[in-house]
From TrEMBL:
<dbReference type="GO" id="GO:0051213">
    <property type="term" value="F:dioxygenase activity"/>
</dbReference>
<dbReference type="InterPro" id="IPR051821">
    <property type="entry name" value="Asp/Asn_beta-hydroxylase"/>
</dbReference>
<keyword id="KW-0472">Membrane</keyword>
<feature type="transmembrane region" description="Helical">
    <location>
        <begin position="280"/>
        <end position="298"/>
    </location>
</feature>
<keyword id="KW-0223">Dioxygenase</keyword>
<dbReference type="InterPro" id="IPR027443">
    <property type="entry name" value="IPNS-like_sf"/>
</dbReference>
<keyword id="KW-0560">Oxidoreductase</keyword>
<dbReference type="Pfam" id="PF05118">
    <property type="entry name" value="Asp_Arg_Hydrox"/>
</dbReference>
<comment type="similarity">
    <text>Belongs to the aspartyl/asparaginyl beta-hydroxylase family.</text>
</comment>
<keyword id="KW-0812">Transmembrane</keyword>
<protein>
    <submittedName>
        <fullName>Beta-hydroxylase</fullName>
        <ecNumber>1.14.11.-</ecNumber>
    </submittedName>
</protein>
<dbReference type="InterPro" id="IPR007803">
    <property type="entry name" value="Asp/Arg/Pro-Hydrxlase"/>
</dbReference>
<dbReference type="InterPro" id="IPR047694">
    <property type="entry name" value="Lipid_A_LpxO-like"/>
</dbReference>
<feature type="domain" description="Aspartyl/asparaginy/proline hydroxylase">
    <location>
        <begin position="68"/>
        <end position="222"/>
    </location>
</feature>
<keyword id="KW-1133">Transmembrane helix</keyword>
Amino acid sequence: MKWALLGIFVFSVLHIHFRGKVRLPFRRQIFDHSSFMAPLNLFMHTFSKVPATPYLAVSDFPELAPLQQNWHIIRDEALRLQELKKIKAAEKNDDVGFNSFFKYGWKRFYLKWYDASHPSAQQMCPQTYALLQSIPSIKAAMFAELPTGGKLNPHRDPFAGSLRYHLGLQTPNDDRCFIDVDGERHSWRDGQAVMFDETYIHWARNDADSDRIILFCDIERPMRFRWAQALNRWLGRTLMTAAASPNELGDQAGGISKLFRISWAMGQYRRRFKAWSKPAYNLARIALVVAVIALIYYI
């Protein structure tokens, strides 16, 4: 039984690693968060109703049409927030999902995050908030800003229960501002939307002369069977709500994000260890993997 579980885990990691044309270095993949979620994501990919392609047709999600139809209204609320400097990085290292993005200039304002409560979104962006609440397949949404010179390094998101939707609000309308998903580039344009599978390797840059602001949404992945859809919904509600991060005081911070504050503090010591001796750091990582395998064997 132990070896069967270990075999499933290894197969799942290999599935994630070899999915698509672009891959992380294998050593990085072993320690990547997507590896720890690999068995769950193998299930999501196996029973997914949508094609296994980096980009998906927005027209296949007709319930999202009101977002493009009202993009001027959404843009105006986003620009108002930008003027108030409310689109910003997390202030207390309590954004487990996007913490690594902030050091490259990326900023966000949450409009919705699964079952978490964000009263600030309803108060400051009432029209956008109402639009999002009227579309059940939207599980999470935010305004995301990438400034001139900003970037996101190659990564894949850890949870395959959703698909990613971007709607250009105020963009450079320039090919120098782009996202690359599994080796295929898309440049944002005002009022235009794109849908992609965020479990493929993707990265972004803004080398244009102005900032980029988009509406960023997680759309529930359509599954082939009702029971699989129900399980996906439950997992999203349970796991992802726990990763909620606040915009302002009064917004909900999920349990995982609260624990991340402690993890972030511990990470400072990890970074010092790596700076002191990279060979020793790599040896310690390998020893940790061996210890986990040994623990699985002896349990």
